[in-house]
Design a protein that fits this description.
Elements lengths: L2 H37 L2 H4 L1 H27 L5 H28 L7 H18 L4 H22 L2 H50 L9 H18 L3 E8 L2 H8 L1 H16 L8 E6 L2 E7 L3 H16 L2 E4 L2 E4 L2 E8 L8 H16 L5 E3 L6
Parallel strand pairs: 6-7
Antiparallel strand pairs: 1-3, 1-6, 2-3, 4-5
Length: about 375
Amino acid sequence: MPLHSYHDQLQTLALTDLTTRAKSGILTYLCIWIILAFSYDLLTKFPAFFLINTLMVLCFCVLRISHYIVLTRSKNPDIAFLYQWLIITILLASAHWGAMSAWVIYDPRLIELRHIILVITPAFAIGGACTLSISSEIRTLYPLLMCIPFIGALFYTGDTESLVFAFMTTICLIYIFSSSKATHNDYWAAITNHLVAEERAELMEQLSTTDPLTQLKNRMHFDKEYNKEWRRCSRMNCPISVIMIDLDHFKQLNDKFGHVFGDECLKKAAHAIQNEVSRPADCVARYGGEEFIVLLPNTNPKGAYNIGKRMLKAVSDLRFEVDGEIIKMTCSVGGATTTPNFEKDRSNLIKDADSALYYAKEHGRNQFYSANQTDS
């Protein structure tokens, strides 16, 4: 998997997780602010304080709701932009709360809010930094922006209680950095390991179903797809076709020019055959040795005939040069079509295609023969 792909996947996962974790935060800010505002009648007693901070809280709510809508409803969201949008909004919200807390500590008219702010602000800093520690920026800046103005105002006030709270909050900050660093590292290690495990599982599955020489699917994968498509075509009452291809005189070419040449022939022939199918459900596999098999769901005899003839030509058009000698290669192709049902023996279709292939070989090679020849 390319490095940029890892980065994209990690950033997408981080954005999704960070958005999910942050959803409750903005609601918490809003609810606590409403409780404070109505409990202490801030609109009547301190209208400027109330209006400024209410406007800020509502602004952050709108930004976060807008972010969530864009993320969830966009078909191709700009992950990097949305990630920065979320981080900046969260940090601005923490800076606002820190400034508002400092205002409460500094302004003697707001003395009745002092003790509740002394409790709430460190609690917000701890909860937010650890919950949102996915982002290294939030892990570091969130508690700083929330607590530094708060601590500064306490030191400025200078009384014993304020200084005690200032020193205790500073110690709390150190603890927050230590704890959030651990959760940050644990999160990124977990999702990185998850992606690595997924990639390895995908690679193992691919290796288990892919022929290493030709990079076509192997016989095991073909059998699985064949069983699946047989059932599907049975339900839909539509035809299914199988084409079998065998390289002519391959053993003689292999013995005469060597196994390296033989391997090159197999790879180029496989590529030529694969190029003649385009539908996702079509399956080209190496069936064994120099033999290939093609699964064509929802394909009638005429369609299988046309594809088989194209494959025949694609292989016969191949040219190989060995010590200045131009070597041509041909193949024999057999096809069969049936409309399956659950009572039929599915192995008979492959047997019919195999019989058609051997008919083509026995009657001159380099030709296509269909078991449904009369329908072609």
